[in-house]
Amino acid sequence: MHAHRASERASGMPPVIVRRRPGYIRGDGERERADMTPQPRMPPVPVPSDPRVALRDAVRLAALDATDLRSPERIAALRPVVRVAARALHVPVAQLNVLTEDQQVPLVAWAPHDHDPARWDVAVGLDASFCQHVVALGAPLRIEDAREHALVRDSTATTDAGIVAYAGVPVRAPAVLGSDAANRVLGTVCVVDFAPRTWSEDDVAILEDLAATVTAELGLRATAASEAALGVAAIATNALGQADAALAESELRFRALADSMPQLAWIADETGAIAWYNRRWFEYTGTILDDMVGWGWRSVHHPEHVDAVVAAFREAIDARRPWEDTFPLRRHDGEWRWFLSQARPVHDPGTGRIRWFGTNTDITERIAIETERARLLSAEQDARRAAEQANLAKSQFLATMSHELRTPLNAIGGYADLLDMGLRGPVTEAQRADIARIRHGQRHLLSLINEILNFARLESGTVDYRIETVPAAAALRDVSTMIVPLAAARGLSFRVAQCAPTLAVHADREKLRQVLANLLSNAVKFTMPPGAIRLSCATDDADWLRFTVHDTGIGIASDRLDAIFEPFVQVDTQLTRTAGGTGLGLSISRELARGMGGELSVTSVPGEGSAFTLRLPRAPDLDEPVHATPAAALGLVEAEAEVRRLLDEGGVHAALRFLNARTFHRFTGLYRFDGTVLRNVALFDREAPALARGEDAPMHETWCAIVGTTERTFTLADARADARVVDHPARETVVSYCGALVRGGDGRTLGTLCSFDVEPRPVPELEVPLLETVAPIFARYVLDDTTPDVRPDRTHRTPH
After folding, report:
1. Which long-range contacts (CB under 8 A, 24 or more apart) does 422-430 make?
2. Which of 337, 528, 634, 665 could form a disulfide with 364 if both were Cys (CB 3.0 to 4.6 A apart)?
3. According to the model, what pLDDT value does residue 32 have?
């Protein structure tokens, strides 16, 4: 308690003296007296039958207004009262309340965090007020169990707020307000508990001392306000009967306080004429009272502002509302400095007159700082707009150049294919090797340009997203077919973890494939043999699904983890120069992930590997599960064994279904060359799985004829945009195609094993070596198409 008292004395409040006071009202309404020497006290206000009578007492309400008890500075000054009450009585909640005629308004409330402090700082109606009874009684009130107390057992504070125990004492108006108001109860100091409690005499005495401290503080502040409002002459008038020495000391204290203020201060009458300034005003302006009295203060105002200032001040005076304005004042040396000026009306309850107490605070430096901040903000916004325009111009340039470069590169690839197929004449093995190098360089350049174009589209905000429900297992299957040959060529093991067949995500199917393919390609690029790569999917919770690419590669240093997602940043520049790349892949992948409503993150340990995780919004589980074939990422040897097994156990149709799952094409078929006719032996249609065979077609109208003529695998991603086949009759019906030659044991060409579609489709990198590996296995089925699962009565007109 001593430490708290010391801090309260330092704040300017009268010291809190806790002592026993005899005579208080028990919870049952009976008066008790302590066995102590009685102390003088004011006679209690008669207890009315209805508390509202006491609350509506006009003298009490006038005293409440005169004290201005709810002003912020008074609330701050009285905050220690509730803190002392709570700590001295060991209660969870303490309040200093005032009672209007229809509300209980907390000025200051104290409660620990586990009792929701904000809840106790809200005004309540009389139906939830215990303190109204203290006003009515004019004496302390203690309640040991509100649930059984006649006054409050039906109060919502008891039934809803859970208050059980209560002790409150009256806060009375100070004597300085006059004898009529001096004994009126303005409010209460009270404490509450949420369990039954017996309040001791000392408890009530402590609260009474705290209430007396509040009254004393109100008296001091009312005196100071009166002095400020009325001036020295009014002080003398209101202090008639007091000792001349006390009057002189009071005036001295007021002037010392006013002169020590850092602001310029003044007092005006109800017309706005100023009769008093503090010493700092004269020191700043270099004037004397004769120069400034009345409206003379206008002479130190800037001529460009003075008319507006006078008009605003007169308007506030007429409306009797607080006034605030900002304007420059001339200093004694001629310098103009900016001031925040404020004044508020002070009402004298005795005479009914209004006085204005005002201050001027120098804010020149603050305005300079704000002006500089505004200048810097404007400069930063201009720089940002310029950067955005430059960035847009860069993106537009990249997009334009990428389009311009792709056209000749596509032509280079197309003519290289024409040469390789021998359509321009015989090709030697040395020339074929050169053509392969040309094609490899063309594909590499095209991939780099595509990355730059994608990046430019993302930066310019022109990327469209087709969000749909994508089965997770299908996404893993599609991307795995492209990565298997890359990993095998590098001597790396690649494994796809089992994914629940009913899981699905909300995503753009192609962009999801692009992100996963990029992550897997990076893993292949930065993992040294004989390393391992693993692709998995799992659920975070009901809302998210994550795809994770784990590798045992070089890893990434912790200080580089954020930077790798920035454009043109590469993890290891020496290794990247060897492996190739623009440094855009991860940046593009992150933006695509965010565009689909997800996020891309990474964890890594240098020398041990990395794990890139793509999180996407989870879609409702599928009604028909998608089963990811365990062989989705099989190597060529394993895939060949699986095709042999399926042919033996399920027939041609089952084998074609297996192959179809590893392509983007709708159809996978087995065809036989028969003179001028291409005979369909068996067909799998992804959209009609029950179909077993398609129709035959004239040989010259098919892409399979090119495979038979060149005896080489032939692929098309989009026949309508491919210069090689601009005049071919099949280009309008079969738009994308990949076919491999089926040879007999004697080397004779028998037919083709192919996949195709009526829409443009990319050809997965695994598809060509896969078809070339398994095509010879189908030779006997091309020669004999009477296998049980191939029935002529179940035919289908295909566009082939």
Report:
1. 422/710
2. 337
3. 42
